[in-house]
Design goal:
Oligomer: single chain
CATH class: Mainly Alpha
Number of strands: 0
Structural class: mainly alpha
Strand content: under 5%
Radius of gyration: 18 Å
Distance between the termini: 40 Å
Largest sheet: none
Shape: elongated
CATH architecture: Orthogonal Bundle
CATH topology: 434 Repressor (Amino-terminal Domain)
Number of domains: 1
Helix content: 55-70%
Order of helices and strands: HHHHH
Length: 95
């Protein structure tokens, strides 16, 4: 039986906000998720990095930056091209 302590801890986002790192952590999480999703779609379509880069009309090193979950310097344009190659779309919204 699991015991739940209702007053133990708090919301993780509240903690990140208090530390002043919520926005940074959110951006990193989004980039990591997008990189992983694109890589998974590449695997489904059996696309090598070289073939993917060629279909995107970009360099292999540019694709490596896109797939690197820690590299946040990727442009929206590059993400959009990668999504299109694997048959997906990038959706953004202001909230």
């Amino acid at each position: 039986m699991t015991v739940v302590h209702k007053n133990l801890g708090g919301r993780f986002n509240d903690f990140l906000e208090e530390e002043g790192i919520l926005e940074e952590c959110t951006q990193t999480a989004i980039k990591r998720a997008l990189s992983w999703q694109i890589e998974q779609e590449m695997k489904k379509k059996k696309l090598s990095k070289s073939a993917m880069a060629k279909k995107m009309s970009t360099s292999r090193s540019s694709l490596d930056r896109l797939l690197d979950p820690k590299n946040e310097s990727v442009t929206l344009y590059t993400l959009k091209k990668a999504a299109r190659v694997v048959g997906r779309k990038i959706r953004l919204e202001l909230a």
